[in-house]
Task: structure prediction
Amino acid sequence: MTIQDVKIEYQKELAMLYEPKEIQSIFGLVAEDLGYTATLLIQNQLCELAPEQQRHFENALLRLRKAEPVQYVRGIADFYGLQFKVTNSVLIPRPETEELVDLIIRKHTNQSIKIVDLGTGSGCIAISLAKNLPKADVSALDISPEALKIAKKNAQQNEVKIRFFEGSMSEEDCLLNSEQFDIIVSNPPYVSNSEKQQMRPNVLDFEPQLALFVDDTNPLCFYSAIARLAVAKLAEGGCVYCEINEQFGKETVHLFESYGLRECEIVKDIFGKDRIVTAKK
Result:
């Protein structure tokens, strides 16, 4: 069996789940684990695969056919130029969240600041900030012990020092009582339960629902918790940066303003959707 044969098989077997360009990308990622770059795939497409290479592609395809995300199949996700270990205990990092990280890095380059990431998951936000803001002191909080295990491994792998805390951002004493921060950042659960029907099986069946969904009756519950912590834990002039549900941009701003936060703004993502809310204490 050649690389070309395997590629055709992937296109055929995954056609009901993904668009052709997506399948090509998935195939490229699976091949990358065998050392194949895009150029090498083209150069070697008619070369016979060794038995162990065939098994690698076959084992991955068995899982991919069940709509399991390729990041979980590989155990790796790329984010902001770094690689992160991922399991189904953590969300797969999204490109929109890279925009959140990039905004903070651009606004706070070379600053000696204290940052806390609420609901860190894989640690992708906290670790990317620590990597690109070397003067920053970064902490991270998550309610899931399993997620924290992954985040700690990712911090070690990416050679950054992060202080991790286990707890819920909804609890007022989830952070050290005497400590104050210059930045609170969060990508909290914000997808309402009623939106589940619009989501793909590869998200619904494999990613941790605790990190995704909120009750329709209180879709901004975590933003209320973030606002309370901002009032209690931010230094004067400190900033809040949150990824949001595009449907609730104005509502999130009004909520933050009701807690006394100021200069609340909505930032659109590259697709023109309301994606980030920023505020100051």
Q: What stands out?
A: Residues 51-64 form the longest helix (14 residues). The chain has two domains: 3-66, 88-280. The CA atoms of residues 125 and 198 lie 26 Å apart.
